[in-house]
Amino acid sequence: MSNINLLPWRESAKERQKQSFFILIGVSCAIAAVGVFAVNQYFNHQISAQDQRNQYLQHEIAILDTEIGQINVIKAQKQSLVNRMKLIDTLQQSRNVSVRLFNDLPLVIANGVYLQSLNFTQPQINVVGKAEAYNRVASTMRLIDGSGWLGQTAISSIFANDSALMKLSEFSMRFSVLNNNKPNSAVKQ
Q1: pLDDT in tens, 150-186
Q2: pLDDT tens across 82-94, in order?
Q3: Residues 100, 103, 105, 107: is their CA dihedral positive or negative?
Q4: Alpha carbons 74 and 172: distance in angstroms, whole number
Q5: Distance CA 22, CA 67 (A)
């Protein structure tokens, strides 16, 4: 009879298994909580590092925006200076046009052509005058076109005027200043 155990050994084994199961669950929960906490800390660290990089980039972008603004101001100043230089160059080139025109006018006006008025609006010149014959006006047009710096002649009107003692035809003509940089090269008659 000594082999019979009357103690409830199955219940104590179940109790030990239950305790080890709860201990295992507790340890697993603790490990899971530590893992979740570690992952959370890792991602929070990554987020804060990315926020710092973003702030750095925003700061650098703001600096570059101010530099770009300064570059745009400098470009506008440069364009203003270039426009002024072009204007000065244009004025420099055209300052002697009227003097040159009046110097060359006797050379490009044919004999028998008389000018009554001359209107100069850069680069267009309008002339009103009288001529003894139509071919004198045509000769004047050829001389103007051959001058090298005047050209694009066009007759606006030409008609005979019977009211004067001499039979002179009245005409209206226009021509342009083509190139002001060439030296004086008017064609002589």
Answers
A1: 878 888 887 777 665 667 888 888 888 876 554 444 4
A2: 999 999 988 887 7
A3: negative
A4: 50
A5: 66
With a pLDDT cut of 90, the percent of the chain lying above it is: 38
Instruction: In whole angstroms, give the CA distance from residue 108 to residue 185.
Output: 11
- The more confidently predicted of residues 188 and 75 is 75
Burial of 7 (0-12, 13-18, 19+ CB in 10 A): exposed
Range with the poorest average pLDDT among 15-24, 76-85, 153-162: 153-162
* For residues 14-37, average pLDDT: 95
Domain ranges of the chain: 11-41, 52-95, 97-177
Cβ 122 vs Cβ 94: under 8 Å: yes
Core vs surface per residue 60-88: b (16+ CB within 10 A) or e: eeeeeeeeeeeeeeeeeeeeeeeeeeeee
| Terminal-to-terminal C-alpha distance of the chain | 161
In CATH terms, the fold of domain 97-177 is Gyrase A; domain 2 (3.30.1360)
Q: What tokens were used for 115? A: 């000018």
Rounded Cα–Cα distance for residues 144 and 130 (Å): 17
The answer to whether residues 174 and 154 touch, using CB atoms and an 8 Å cutoff, is yes
CB 137 within 8 A of CB 153: no
Element (H, E) at 14: helix 9-94
